[in-house]
Amino acid sequence: MDLDLAGKRVLVTGASRGIGLATVEAFVAEGATVVAVSRKSTPELEATGATFVAADLLDATAPQRVLDTVLADDPRLDVLVNNAGGGEAADVDLADPIGGSRAAWGDVLALNLGAAVEMTRAALPALSRTRGAIVNISSSSARDPRKVPLSYAAAKAALNAFSRGLAEQLGDTGVRINVVTPGATRTAILTSPDGYVGKLAASMGLDQETVLAAMPEQSGMVTGKLIEPAEIARAVLLLASPTMPSAVGANWNVDGGTLKTP
Questions:
Q1: Cys-Cys crosslink for 148: which of 52, 141, 199, 228, Cβ 3.0 to 4.6 Å?
Q2: Is 196 in the active site?
Q3: Which of 152, 166, 190, 253 is catalytic?
Q4: Does 199 or 35 have the greater pLDDT score?
């Protein structure tokens, strides 16, 4: 299937690993020109040939600086993928039923909601000129906030509402906004000893591999296995493709059957 992405100019945030890296790889394979944004690059990201721009999106001023840099050489932008998210949960946050301190909430909201809002704000003039597409990466936690910090679930739920509302507001501009909602995906947030699952396992006195092995069943995934980042990337490409002009304001679940409501 030709997705008509060859030659498109794409910006992906949170691009150094996991879903972001897989998304960069998928767009490059389609012949797109990709700008990859993250705090630090990685050998895997460098191997894609994407243009790297360093930025810490916890800084509210970073999105506009990123867009100014990206558009300085070429004012064209066809696709924005807001993937930056996650965050590092301290042990005290994991133990807090409210989801952490005021400061912890501020950081989680800034990274998982604020960064997407401000990247979108900065990119809209360029995307309006190309009648481009925005794809935001959410989480099944937004609709099933069990067993995750409530700050993270609330931030992703807000991202869903922002995406759906803005899709309505921008209908006349031709800019399409959609969301991909992954379930438990094999990324560093799950597999790294310093990630959420690693810290959660340690707090319960369990081996991390034991917790990971049990996660699909406990999450209600009918597939029985974690999702690979490349599968999320394929959903992103479809929603970004000009061959899907009627996909507007959609939220595609790629969650192994975690979410049970139709």
A1: 141
A2: no
A3: 152
A4: 35
